[in-house]
Amino acid sequence: MDGFIELDRVEKVFDVRRRAGLLRRERHQVRAVDGISFSVPRGEMVGYIGPNGAGKSTTIKMLTGILTPSGGRLRVAGVDPSRDRTRLARRIGVVFGQRTTLWWDLPLRDSYGLVRRMYRIPDARYRANLERCVELLDLGKLLEVPVRQLSLGQRMRGDIAAALLHDPDVLYLDEPTIGLDVISKAKVREFLREVNATQGTTVLLTTHDLTDIEQLCRRVMVIDHGRLVHDGDLEGLHAVGESERTLVIDLERELPPVTGIPGVRVVRTEGPRQWLAFAATRSAAPLVAAVAERYPLVDLSVREPDIEDVIARMYAEPKPYAVPHDERTS
Amino acid sequence: MADALSRAAEGLRAYGLIVAMWVRSTMAYRASFLMMAAGNFAATALDFVAILIMFSHVRTLGGFSLPEVAFLYGTTSTSFGLADLLLGNMDKVGRRVRDGTLDTLLVRPVPVLAQVAADRFALRRLGRISQGVLLLGWSLMRLDIHWTPVRLLLVPLMLVSGAAIFGAVFVAGAAFQFKADDAAEVQNAFTYGGTTLLQYPPTLFATDLVRGVTFVVPIAFVNWVPALRVLGRENPLGLPPWADFASPLVAVVCCALAGLAWRAGLRSYRSTGS
To answer: Domain range for residue A299?
Structure first.
């Protein structure tokens, strides 16, 4: 086994009972995770994204041993999570973005004291880890403050520190930047990068904020309807998503929409300015040349596709393309 | 076996750690705690006030004198109070299942049962115990009992076994909440309802009811069965004499069944989500 986290055709099927009439209930099966395979080597930081209900959380719950898979094989650090949940718990850290594990009415420091005893962290190691977290996450002034008085961003930083005090090999983060302000987000990202680089902690991150992925992960996995629809780098995601770049041109005067250039469609006009969409995998240079040849071009700029649109397009079924495929690639 | 023992020890340790955190949390609001404890004491004391009012009209209740009823009341209140203090918040597990916070307990390296049992530990529940102990003490002073070593031994045995039986009901009730949302209400019928029943002499109730709580849900072993022996009275069901000492055995069986129910409940949660 080469990966540190290893999934082989893992499935999770739920029986859902729905009320159908006064007493009658209909049973049907939902395949929340439908045969997912991937492997994450030690020390990698991976983004795991997908729309709500795609199966992200279910995957994380199987990886942490909370849920038992219905089929397939799953290993984390050589351990079967559902069978050896308690043993694995010592080696993993989990942050559920919207569920704090900190003690509401007690100073932040007390929550860490409980973690220390519960995980039996040796004194020296606990002190070193706490010091590092306090410094990098800027928690110094917060340690004596009751958790209920912390802001959302401060609490999230506190939660992340709590998940790392026992030196886990793997860190699962479920929406770690949700609801945070820009500065808190930046701090969290910087800290995660640092932990991953210096401790070699393997990190699996689910998020709705694609900046998280752009800034942290070289590899991104996309899950939809329980299946892995993309596993690779961000650029690859663009190709799979058939995303489009936009060429914005300023002409000398107001003209009818540009025509006669293959693989291009005008998506918007506003006076002399026109927006031309083309496939993200194509080069812009010949296109610019073709436009300049036929039209009085004054200025231009190229806009990269919005990653959020890319993923939205992957999910959309059928794909919302007005332009026939052959026309775009000719 | 050694593995099970070390897990149990680990569970108790975790229970203690979490309870300590809740006690400290409670003490963050000291005044509120004192009022809650006093309120808890007063609310449970009202039960006994009701009995006192009855005795202002009659001399005996089902053939039992006031100190005898106080003895029944004191024993069941102490047992139930102990179980309620230690495990009473397990009925919140349903809420944790529904809002998903149970998951945060499942990723920790300590038994989930211990974490759920210690969840929201409420020291104010000492109110019920202290009231039960006070009444038990008063009844022991007033009762005219010929104390033999056996009778003397039966009292603490009864209190501990009773607490274990109620504790088993709490655990089993929590286990059913994995399956049914409103299992807490059924469980309350046996715990709070049960303790109210056991405060009164069994002679007041229909034989079928007494039979039910003896053989089906055996809460009669919390105090009725052994207490009748201490008070020197006949068992209304004519149970053999050894049954008077069966409470610890009943408690062990109940705890074992509750443990199995808990395991099954947790397993079903882990295979179905919520």
So the answer is: 243-329
Whether A68 and B271 lie within 8 Å, measured CB to CB: yes
Q: How many domains does chain A have?
A: 2
Q: Which of A12, A117, A204 to mutate to test the interface with B (most CBs of B within 10 A)?
A: A117
The answer to whether B93 and B180 have CB atoms below 8 angstroms apart is no
A15-40 as b/e, with b when 16 or more CB fall inside 10 Å? Answer: eeeeeeeeeeeeeeeeebbbebebeb
CA distances to A254, A275, A299, A300 from A271, in Å: 5, 11, 14, 15
Does one domain contain both A206 and A320? Answer: no
Whether B270 has its CB under 8 Å from any CB of chain A: the answer is: yes
For residue B116, what are the CA distances in angstroms to B18, B20, B86, B111? 10, 14, 11, 9
Contacts of A44 (CB under 8 A, 6+ apart): A4, A202, A203, A218, A219
The model's pTM is 0.83
pLDDT value of position A241: 63
Residues of A in contact with B100 (CB under 8 A): 99
Per residue in B73-111, pLDDT tens?
999 999 999 999 999 889 889 889 888 899 999 999 999
Taking only the tens place, the pLDDT of each residue in A52-77 is 778 888 999 999 999 999 999 999 99
Cβ contact A119:B14 at 8 Å: no
CA A221/CA A54 separation, integer angstroms = 12
Rounded to whole angstroms, how far apart are CA atoms A320 and A309? 12
Q: Are residues A196 and A95 in the same domain?
A: yes
Give the CA distances from residue B66 to residues A215, B59, B70, in Å, rounded to whole numbers and listed in that order: 76, 8, 6
Ranges of H-type helices in A201-261? 210-216, 234-240
Q: Mean pLDDT throughout A68-96?
A: 94
Q: Domain check: are A14 and A108 in the same one?
A: yes
